[in-house]
Amino acid sequence: MAEKEHQEKKLRPLKMKKLPLKEIKPRGWLRAQLRLQAEGLTGHIEEIWEDLGPRNRWLGGDIEGWERGPYYADGLVPLAYLLEDEELMEKAEKWVEAFLGSQREDGWIGPVSGEGDYQDYDPWPNFVVLKALREYFRATEDERALETMEGFCRYLKENLDERPLFRWGKFRWADLALSIYWLYERREEEWLLQLAERVREQGYDWEKHFAEFPYKAPQPADEMKMETHVVNNAMGIKAPGMGYRLSEDEGDLKALYQGLTQLDKFHGQVTGLFTGDEHFGGRDPSRGTELCAVVEYLFSLEELLEVTADSELADRLERIAFNALPATFKPDMWAHQYDQQANQVICDVSEKIWSNAPDANIFGLEPNYGCCTANMHQGWPKFAASLWMKTGDEGEGEGLAAVSYSPCRIDTSLGGREVGLEVDTDYPFSEEIELSLHLEEPISFPLHLRIPRWSQKPEIVSPRGELFRPAAGDFYELEEKWRDGDRIRLALPAPLEAERRFRGAVALKRGPLVYALPLKEEWKLIGGEPPHGDWEVHPKEAWNYGLKLDPDRPSRFVSVNRGKLEEEKRPFSPGTAPISLKVKGGAIPDWILEDNRAGPIPSSPVVPSAVAEEKDLCLIPYGCTNLRVTEFPLIDLD
User: Fold this and answer.
1) Would you say residue 105 lies in a domain?
2) What is the pLDDT of residues 449-478, one digit of tens each?
3) Which residue of 79, 295, 420, 467 could cross-link 379, Cys pair, CB 3.0 to 4.6 Å?
4) Distance CA 298, CA 378 (A)
């Protein structure tokens, strides 16, 4: 009976679908950011980091044959093809050919023996190989990728009973399930859904985890476990969506939203992340979040958007991508942190209260541990590849949905007819967006334009001059018979918001951007050789300020200053921030360093007698900062 039930299972169709990589061309500041990545660590890491060099066991060498090679390829492939960079494509194809060429007759891919604490026949690295092969197929439509993926799935079908999922694979089963679903949509073989069901049964119960969520406090060092690991949770948040696709119960998706709520409530940061300086760290803005969690949370949201078409998930995707993602890199992308902090006032080698090594928040090649050095590459490319998605069934009902309005050009087909779409904007640094259509003939199709929840009195102007005032917080469908050269204009006014945070602190947001106080900084090279060295970053000025404003009416106390976005000068850098806020602040002498980090944030409101002096403060986008204060004590106006 159970076998019959498995055979009768159907895969719930996606509500939105990502485009092939060749149909997306990032432009403007986003392309500049991808080029920066290509010219930084991503493009040169094989030359300077032995773990991804020719001795890597995935390439036939004798070192590191676990997750690092697959992690790197999973980000390198989309970056290379989005940029149409011949040198990067050659590097990416070398890794892909290594994966394809290392498959055994029984379907296993790559090295078998474990390393150090890792067991033999650990399937987890192969989960990442499947993800990389998906990206490769999206770029090339090379059928060998599908054949190799199918071969590994057949291996699992024959061996999961004898070798069930364990450790990392058990907790990261959703990353396998999404590849199995993707393969099923192209092969339509029922045994793949049966395999996906077995994978889910052997995997950790994330739905129960997020529904009950007992981990409401920072995790003591002697109580840390796999289910409190920050990256596992960033990956696990998509598990309810993967389970929902196999079920017939709409309620199965409930655990996703419970998880988002619980993570925000007990460990959330204003950037849309949650803390985990390896394991849950609470809401204190001086606790850290691992870079792997940043890029994996982004990827989970991108996958969940295909399942749900929920615009609020896109709001969170942008919040993380425009703030936490750039902030954890050196502006030239030649170095990265393992842990970033919202209140990050010093980056040095020193003992802190988290469970990571003393160098976890410096900027370097391999601070703390090499997983982030290998995995960080997927963040920007996969975000760029998810800007627009297709909606509806293939054929006459197809449309396009805007996930994010970053500058790009799309060239795709809808209903068998070619459609080009350009997005001209400086968003998120600007509120104005213009869409231009390029068509060989008039065609009708729906455009689903995301209207962020934060937008106040948004407006859409159609090519014929019609004015629409859509509600915020959803996709707005605009459909007519489009003509070549049609332009649609969007205005997404972004009001200033003062969000109350940990211990009554306040953080300022405007649209998808969070604002922080940048600190004058001194970079100290402590190892390696530039441009890929290891740096401590020390403050050269006071950081312990509170803000003087009314959180219910922040615009009365804060002015917005707009500059010019100069893409060639790195949009995410302290010296070239294209927008800033001016606000009154005051120094709080009792707020000092403790445990080599900003000490516990004073409880708000802070009485004026505890404030030493007032001064004008200039806040810039969080993603443009290296040292910063983001959550501020609120000074009592009375």
Assistant:
1) yes
2) 999 999 999 999 999 999 999 999 999 999
3) 295
4) 9
